[in-house]
């Protein structure tokens, strides 16, 4: 059994104490060998700097490092190409979650064992060690990087002198802090209630059965049953409100869908840079933050593509490893935008050593939402953090584009890729002859199509404009009386746009 212990000085995590609530968190990670990937025993769980370790792939076997780098380079995110998160990386992620919740991390402990202890997860001896280590660090909160059962949570709270929460509770707390809209608050409340319900038993004397003695005998309902009944009633009420939100959102979506404007949804691991990219493409001004789950409420904004097609870009909540199932079900009203999207932009932090694993987690959540087969572009973000030589070496592929949302690098390539992958309202080349008196039709062509050529001519005394345009099918249907011939498909047109833009991107 190998235990790695780290205690942080008071000034080591100052950026986590911004909430002013005085939460001093001690983190506990558990690595079950039967589920762990093979790695040398020399890997340490210590990290005394305020940043995540710069190279968390140190200690991985050579073949694992090669698989990880290859999957990232090729833009692959399937489970078969990803090395699972190891316990050290998972504990580092837990630290970032704790900081996002406003806690100050004062220490951490990592235990390796063969299997979980059914009573306390870590074993009675280790509970005593955690007690001593947390006391030395003056922690008032202990966070386990593992979901605790109701009995494990109850036993740990009995043995340890401060509050105990697990990974799921921590994520729910962050969501509760960040939810701003009424819809988001309802969804978080539902997830919290469904998490709390099986964990009511034993939470203090006030939730146990009525005690014996004078004044307590006689008929009556136990406090536990009362609390359960109240929570069930509240869950039903919140679900009705969420259904009303879903009904209103469905009406809004039907009105949107009456006009052929496809939706492109941003998906990806939390803190991958989705909101920064959303702002870079739309100038929407949504909140950008380096902390996890800065975005909970969906936002839709229009974007004009190089083909002049309009699309709606949707910013969504970030995914995370072991995302609580209660959250996935509660946020279905929000995630319906992902389900209805015509195209997904999967944003990945290209600088993260766990990028391939993160992409695999995103793919897993998308499958749970029945979106695994949707057309997808893999957007490798934050390439401005690479050295120039590495940045120039990276090449886009058919399904991936490397960008920097913060600096606006290669966003034109991304827009061209969206144009090429979007099948809704496809682009086709057509030749039209429009009388100059038809100012409205000419204005629509200027606004919604790419004009390849234009020629003015006189036709039996009537001034005409002969145009070759790349335009969406919906516009050609509206102006079909002016169409004299059709042409190439949207795929051919997209290739033309790529060739036109290539000199600019090479110069960059």
Query: Which secondary-structure class do the elements indicate?
Result: alpha/beta
Broad shape: elongated
CA-atom Rg in angstroms = 28 Å
Helix content: 25-40%
Number of strand segments? 15
Instruction: Show unreliable segments.
Output: 1-20, 36-82, 204-220, 487-494, 499-508
Number of helices: 16
Kindly describe this structure:
The chain is α/β, with parallel strands linked by helices. It has four domains: 3-174, GTPase HflX, N-terminal domain (Rossmann fold); 179-205 and 224-259; 261-421, Rossmann fold (3-Layer(aba) Sandwich), CATH 3.40.50; 427-488, 2-Layer Sandwich (Alpha-Beta Plaits). The protein has 16 helices and 15 strands. Helix 6 (182-196) packs antiparallel against helix 7. The radius of gyration is 28 Å and the shape is elongated. The chain starts with a strand and ends with a helix. The model is unreliable at 1-20, 36-82, 204-220, 487-494 and 499-508 (pLDDT under 50).
Give the helix/strand layout.
Layout: E1 3-7, E2 24-32, H1 62-73, H2 87-100, E3 104-113, H3 124-136, E4 141-144, H4 150-159, E5 163-166, H5 167-178, H6 182-196, H7 223-257, E6 263-268, H8 274-282, E7 299-304, E8 310-315, H9 325-330, H10 332-340, E9 343-349, H11 355-368, E10 376-381, H12 388-393, E11 400-402, H13 411-421, E12 427-435, H14 439-448, E13 450-459, E14 462-472, H15 473-478, E15 483-486, H16 490-507
Parallel strand pairs: 2-3, 2-4, 4-5, 6-8, 6-9, 9-10, 10-11
Antiparallel strand pairs: 1-3, 7-8, 12-14, 12-15, 13-14
Helix pairs in contact: 2-5, 5-6, 6-7, 13-16
């Amino acid at each position: 059994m190998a235990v790695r212990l780290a205690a942080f000085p008071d000034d080591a995590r100052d950026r986590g104490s911004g909430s002013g609530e005085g939460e001093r968190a001690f983190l506990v990670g558990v690595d079950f060998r039967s589920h762990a990937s093979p790695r040398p025993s020399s890997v340490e769980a210590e990290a005394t700097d305020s940043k995540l370790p710069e190279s968390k792939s140190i200690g991985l076997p050579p073949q694992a490092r090669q698989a990880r780098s290859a999957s990232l380079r090729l833009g692959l995110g399937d489970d078969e190409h990803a090395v699972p998160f190891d316990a050290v990386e998972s504990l580092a992620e837990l630290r970032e979650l704790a900081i996002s919740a406003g806690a100050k991390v004062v220490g951490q402990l990592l235990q390796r064992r063969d299997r979980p202890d059914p009573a306390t997860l870590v074993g009675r001896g280790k509970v005593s060690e955690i007690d001593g280590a947390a006391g030395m660090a003056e922690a008032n909160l202990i966070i386990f990087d593992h979901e605790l059962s109701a009995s494990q949570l109850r036993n740990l709270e009995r043995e340890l002198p401060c509050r105990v929460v697990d990974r799921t509770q921590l994520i729910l707390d962050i969501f509760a802090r960040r939810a701003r809209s009424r819809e988001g608050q309802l969804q978080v409340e539902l997830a919290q209630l469904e998490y709390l319900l099986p964990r009511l038993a034993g939470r203090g004397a006030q939730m146990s059965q009525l005690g014996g003695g004078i004044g307590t005998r006689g008929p009556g309902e136990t406090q536990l049953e009362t609390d359960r009944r109240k929570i069930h009633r509240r869950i039903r009420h919140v679900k009705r409100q969420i259904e009303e939100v879903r009904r209103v959102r469905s009406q809004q979506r039907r009105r949107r869908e009456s006009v052929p404007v496809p939706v492109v949804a941003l998906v990806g691991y939390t803190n991958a840079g989705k909101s920064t990219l959303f702002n870079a493409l739309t100038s929407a001004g949504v909140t950008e933050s380096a902390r996890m789950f800065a975005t909970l409420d969906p936002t839709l904004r229009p974007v004009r593509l190089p083909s002049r097609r309009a699309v709606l870009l949707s910013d969504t909540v970030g995914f995370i490893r072991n995302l609580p199932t209660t959250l996935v079900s509660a946020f279905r009203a929000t995630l319906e935008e992902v389900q209805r999207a015509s195209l997904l932009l999967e944003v990945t932090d290209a600088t993260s050593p766990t990028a391939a694993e993160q992409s695999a987690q995103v793919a897993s959540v998308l499958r749970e939402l029945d979106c695994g087969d949707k057309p997808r572009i893999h957007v490798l973000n934050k390439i401005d953090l690479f050295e120039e030589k590495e940045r120039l070496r990276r090449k886009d592929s058919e399904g991936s584009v490397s960008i920097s949302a913060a600096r606006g690098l290669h966003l034109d390539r991304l827009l061209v890729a969206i144009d090429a992958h979007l099948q809704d309202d496809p682009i086709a080349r057509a030749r039209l002859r429009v009388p100059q008196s038809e100012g409205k039709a000419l204005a629509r062509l200027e606004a919604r199509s790419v004009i390849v050529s234009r020629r003015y001519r006189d036709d039996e005394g009537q001034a005409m404009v002969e145009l070759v345009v790349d335009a969406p099918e919906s516009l050609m249907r509206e102006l079909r009386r002016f169409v004299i011939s059709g042409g190439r498909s949207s795929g051919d047109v997209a290739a033309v746009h790529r060739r036109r833009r290539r000199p600019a991107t090479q110069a960059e």
